[in-house]
Amino acid sequence: MKTHHESARAIPVARDTDVVVVGGGPSGLAAAIAAARNGAKTTLIERFGFLGGIATAGLMANLNGFRNQVEPDATQTVRGIAEEIVLELKKMKGLGGSPYQQKKYPDEPAKMAYSYAIDTEKFKYVTLKLCVDAGVDVMFHTWFSMPVLDGRRVRGVVVENKSGRIALMAKVVVDASGDGDVAARAGAPFWSSTKGGEPRLGDSLMYRVRFGRRRPKGLGGVDLGSDMIVWGPFSKTIDGTDADAVSRAEIAARLGVFRNFAEMQAKHPELIDATVAETPVMLGIRQTRFIEGEYRITGDDAIKGRRFRDSVAMSSCPIISYYGYRRYLKHQGYSIPYRCLVPKRIENLLIAGRCISSDQRAYESHRAMIPMMAIGEAAGTAAALSSREGTTPRRLDVGLLQRALTARGALIRIPAA
Ligand SMILES: Cc1cc2nc3c(=O)[nH]c(=O)nc-3n(C[C@H](O)[C@H](O)[C@H](O)COP(=O)(O)OP(=O)(O)OC[C@H]3O[C@@H](n4cnc5c(N)ncnc54)[C@H](O)[C@@H]3O)c2cc1C
């Protein structure tokens, strides 16, 4: 490939802060709220003009994972910021009907059901309001470009936006980009199922259907009253870190939307006067890089319900399709160890969200957005404490982190099964 040499130049330092969170999806927004609430001066950068990641930009309007989807499901395994967001949405009448089979629990704190469909506009509002109220400095329309490195220590990030190329210096950076962009560009080791040949989850473009005079029943989508979200055209499984591949897949999926909708209308004539009301900002790419951390959580840990001493979050979600079927857990939940959030080799960096250190099968469980928020909350809290204590995330006292999480209502352990 031909190369072009960029010339070195001085760029403005636009922020000198405690914590920078890259990416405002479910994990990043929870990380930013948690970091700010724990006293850190926090900047959150997001490439779009709203928060939510796949939940909003990907139109995947269904949050899964407060408890096991099937029995034994007596114990709620995530609380904290995720619960707060869903209860705020409930106050605003911002919840719809989840398509997932689940037991109904009385809607009150600590009695959350497995899954909630969300009004995406109200979700954008609630999450932004929580960030602003916590004092997070939100920078929209800003792309992460490169880490600022001093050897193996991250000192901040270089970003691009309408102001040009600017640096944001920070004591700790949380990589919540989904793809592990910061960690990978900093030189942290990672693996990618696209390259490794393991079976992986495919990618889909969701879209919103607005009903006409009739409101058909039993279509299986996310039920939002007058609208529903449909699992739309599937593209091939692509490498979501290859910009050309993403463009090609996005083009193919978008050109397939109306054909896909016509096929659905043919199967369900009651949709005859329904319309495609909205396509998402981006194709939903389920997985890309997994950053190698101090521990790699495994499918065996998830299936056996393993509990770790450095637990900072829990998951009880099924492993969705590795075995060719949805494998439900036969226990109440397993722990996510803090070590999965600490990348090997690179200092002052934490990873949150779907790129944490995990094998394929465990990922297929904790990838659901409710555990993602719990993991984000843990990463943001750890970043704030590391900055306050003048230490690195790797050396942070995990007991201190666990106490801080518990004090703010996060659930990091459940009684042994
Ligand atoms: C098609 C599909 C269907 C799914 N179905 C469900 C479901 O029904 N229920 C459920 O709970 N989960 C579901 N999931 C899984 C879940 O949505 C993801 O695992 C979860 O959103 C991951 O959260 P995250 O915060 O790690 O990443 P993301 O949600 O991907 O958020 C990453 C954020 O970072 C931003 N970003 C990325 N790169 C940069 C950059 N360089 N600079 C600035 N910003 C950047 C993005 O814009 C985005 O806002 C689904 C996922 C997909 C793709």
**Cα shape:** globular
Element string (H = helix, E = strand): EHEEHEEHEEEEHEHEEEHHEEHEEEHHH
Structure summary, number of beta strands:
18
Note the beta-strand portion. Answer: 15-25%
Low-confidence stretches: none
Radius of gyration: 21 Å
Number of helices: 11
Largest sheet: 7 strands, mixed
Classify the secondary structure makeup into a structural class.
Answer: alpha+beta
Distinct small molecules: flavin-adenine dinucleotide
What is the mean predicted local confidence, pLDDT?
A: 95
Distance between the termini: 55 Å
Query: In percent, how helical is the residue content?
Result: 25-40%
Structure summary:
This protein is α+β, with helices and mostly antiparallel strands.
Could you characterize what this model shows?
- With 417 residues, the chain is of the alpha+beta class.
- It contains eleven helices and 18 strands.
- It has helices at residues 26-37, 80-91, 120-134, 181-186, 193-196, 243-255, 257-267, 299-304, 360-366, 369-389, 398-407; strands spanning 13-22, 42-45, 62-64, 95-96, 115-118, 137-139, 143-150, 153-161, 164-175, 190-192, 204-210, 222-224, 227-234, 275-278, 289-291, 311-315, 334-337, 349-351.
- A hairpin with a 2-residue loop joins strand 8 and strand 9 (164-175).
- Helix 2 crosses helix 10 (369-389).
- The termini are far apart.
- The model has no long low-confidence stretch (mean pLDDT 95).
- Flavin-adenine dinucleotide binds next to helix 1, strand 3, strand 7 and helix 10.
Name the features.
417 residues; alpha+beta; seven-stranded mixed sheet; four-stranded antiparallel sheet; 11 helices; 18 strands; globular; binds flavin-adenine dinucleotide
